[in-house]
UniProtKB/TrEMBL annotation, chain B:
<feature type="transmembrane region" description="Helical">
    <location>
        <begin position="98"/>
        <end position="117"/>
    </location>
</feature>
<keyword id="KW-0812">Transmembrane</keyword>
<feature type="transmembrane region" description="Helical">
    <location>
        <begin position="12"/>
        <end position="35"/>
    </location>
</feature>
<feature type="transmembrane region" description="Helical">
    <location>
        <begin position="66"/>
        <end position="86"/>
    </location>
</feature>
<keyword id="KW-0029">Amino-acid transport</keyword>
<keyword id="KW-0472">Membrane</keyword>
<keyword id="KW-0813">Transport</keyword>
<keyword id="KW-1003">Cell membrane</keyword>
<protein>
    <submittedName>
        <fullName>Branched-chain amino acid ABC transporter permease</fullName>
    </submittedName>
</protein>
<dbReference type="InterPro" id="IPR052157">
    <property type="entry name" value="BCAA_transport_permease"/>
</dbReference>
<keyword id="KW-1133">Transmembrane helix</keyword>
<comment type="similarity">
    <text>Belongs to the binding-protein-dependent transport system permease family. LivHM subfamily.</text>
</comment>
<feature type="transmembrane region" description="Helical">
    <location>
        <begin position="264"/>
        <end position="284"/>
    </location>
</feature>
<dbReference type="Pfam" id="PF02653">
    <property type="entry name" value="BPD_transp_2"/>
</dbReference>
<feature type="transmembrane region" description="Helical">
    <location>
        <begin position="199"/>
        <end position="219"/>
    </location>
</feature>
<feature type="transmembrane region" description="Helical">
    <location>
        <begin position="41"/>
        <end position="59"/>
    </location>
</feature>
<dbReference type="InterPro" id="IPR001851">
    <property type="entry name" value="ABC_transp_permease"/>
</dbReference>
Amino acid sequence: MNKKISYGIAFALLLAAPFIVYPVFLMKLLCFALFACAFNLLIGFTGLLSFGHAAFFGAAGYIAGWALRDAGLPTELGILLGVGAAALIGLLMGALAIRRQGIYFTMITLALAQMLYFVFLQAKFTGGEDGLQGVPRGKLLGAVDLSSDLTLYYFVLAIAIAGFAIVMRTVHSPFGQVLKAVKENEPRAISLGYDVDRYKLMAFVLSAALAGLAGATKTLVLGFETLTDVHWSMSGLVVLMTLVGGLGTLVGPIVGAIIIIALENKLGDLGNMLANVTTIEWFRTIGDSVTIVTGLIFIVCVLAFRRGIVGELMAYVERNGKPNAG
Amino acid sequence: MEIFGIPLQAMLSQLLLGLVNGSFYAMLSLGLAVIFGLLNVINFAHGALYMMGAFLAWMGMNYFGINYWVMLIAAPLLVGLFGIIIEKTMLRWLYKLDHLYGLLLTFGITLMLEGVFRSVYGVSGQPYQVPDALTGATNLGFMILPNYRAWVVVASLVVCFATWFVIEKTKLGAYLRAGTENPKLVEAFGVNVPLMVTLTYGFGVALAAFAGVLAAPVIQVSPLMGSNLIITVFAVVVIGGMGSILGSILTGLGLGIIEGLTRVFYPELSATVVFIVMAIVLMIRPAGLFGKEK
C-alpha cells in the first residue's frame, strides 16, 4: 500500500520536474539512473562485478548515433539498433568473462572494454578524438517531433521507466531468484541442478542491453557521442553510483546516479560556496578536480559505508522495527 | 637484410622496444601477483604508484637536482613507504570482505592520485633526460642498440629474477609462500603475519615505482601513464595466471615481444593485440598459461 503511494508521488514529481529543472539535465540524469540500474542487476543481484560496462553504454551510443546521422534511420530504430549492438557485445564479452570467477571476471571485463575503446578510437565512423557530432533527434514513429526538449523529456522518461520496470520484473521473477541463489552460494546452485553459467550469461546480456538502452538514449538527448563514454573511467563511475546508492537495492542506483551526476555538474559551485563560508581559497579549484572528489567518495564508501545510502536507510528502518517505508 | 619485406634493423629495434615494454609488464604483474597471493587484493593503484615513481624521479631532478641513480633507489623506497601507510590505514580493514572491495578501494586511491597529479601538472607529458652514463647507442654490427633501452631490460630482468630467487629459494620466501597457503597456521608458528603482509604490499608497490623510474626517460612522465598501463597488465595477469612467479615474468616479456612484432607487421592492431591474446587464452585454457584451476 505504502509502496504504491510512494511510486505514485515519484511519478507525479517526474512528470512535473521539467517545469522546474532544466530538461536536458534531467534527461541526462534519467539515462545515468537507468545505466546504474542495469549495472546493479549484475553486481547487486547476481554478484558479478563488471568493470567494463562503459563498453555497452558507449557502443550503443555510437551505433545509435551512426544509425540516426549516417544511416538516416528513424529514432526508435536507431535506439533499438544501439541496444542490439550492446546486447551482442555483451554476449561475446560475457561468454569469455564467465569462464573465470571472482576478481578475474572483473579484470577480463575491464580488459575487453579497453580493447573496444581502442576499436572505437581507430574506427572511421566514430570521429576518433573529436567524437560523433550532430546526431539528429528525428521524429518518434514518424509523427511526434522530438526537437522540443519537453517532448523529448517525456519520451526519455517513458524509456527510463520501462527499463526500470524490466529490472524490477527480472529481480522478482523466478529467473531473478536463481540469480540470487548464484550470488549467495554458487556451488549450491550448481548442485541443485541449475546451469549457472547460462544464468550468468543471460543476466550479463540483459544488463548489457539495458546499459545500451541508456547509452543510446543519452546520445539522442545530447546529440553527440564521445570517447568518454567508452573509457574505463565511465565504467568506474557507474560502479561508484551504484555503490553510493546501495548495492543490491532497487532504488539505490537511481539515488546514487542523481548524487554523482549532480556532484559532477555542481562541484564548481559547491567549491565556491565552501570557499566563501570557510575563506579557504583552495576550495575554488575543486571544480577542476572532479576525479579527486570521486576517488575520495570511493574510499569513504568502501571503508565506512558499504551498504550505500539506501542500504543504510533500510538497515536503520529495520533496526527501529518500523514497517517498511520504501 | 630483410625478413618478410621488413628491414632487419627496423624489426630488431621494434623487438627491443617490445622487450622494454615487456619488462614493465613483467615487473608490474609480478608485484600484482605477490600482493594478491598474500593479501587477496588486486591492487588497481599499481599503475598510479608506477606513475608516482616516475614523477618522484622527475621532481627530484627538477626541484632538487637529485640525479637518476639516487632516485632509482629513493623513489621506490618512498612509494613503498606510501604503500605501507595505505595498507596500515585502509587495506587492513578489508581482508575479511569480498575481494571486490579491495579492488574498489584501490581504484579510488588511483583516481585520487591521478587527480592530484593532474591538477598540479596537467595531462601533458614532462620530458626526463636519459642519465649521462647511458646516453648514446652501441653498434652491434647487425643493429644499433640504444644503451638506455638495453639497461632497462637488464635492470628489470635482474630485479625480477632476484625477486624470484628470494621467494622461491630463501627462508624468508618460504615464510611468504606458507603465508599465502595458510596464514593462520603460519601465525601459530610464531611468524608475525600482519607485519609480513604490510611489508609485502610495500615491496610490491616499490617494484611498481622502480619500473616507473626506469620508464621515465623512455616515455614522457604524465599523470595518465599508469592507468593506461595497468589495464594491459591486468590482461597479462589473466593470460599468465597469478600462480607462478616465473610465469608472470615470462608472460610479461612474451607479450611485450608479441606487441613489438605486431607493431612491425600490422600496426593497427598493436594497441589491442594483448587483449586478443587474452581472449584466445580464455577460450583454450581458461585458468591461464601458468595458472592452477581452483
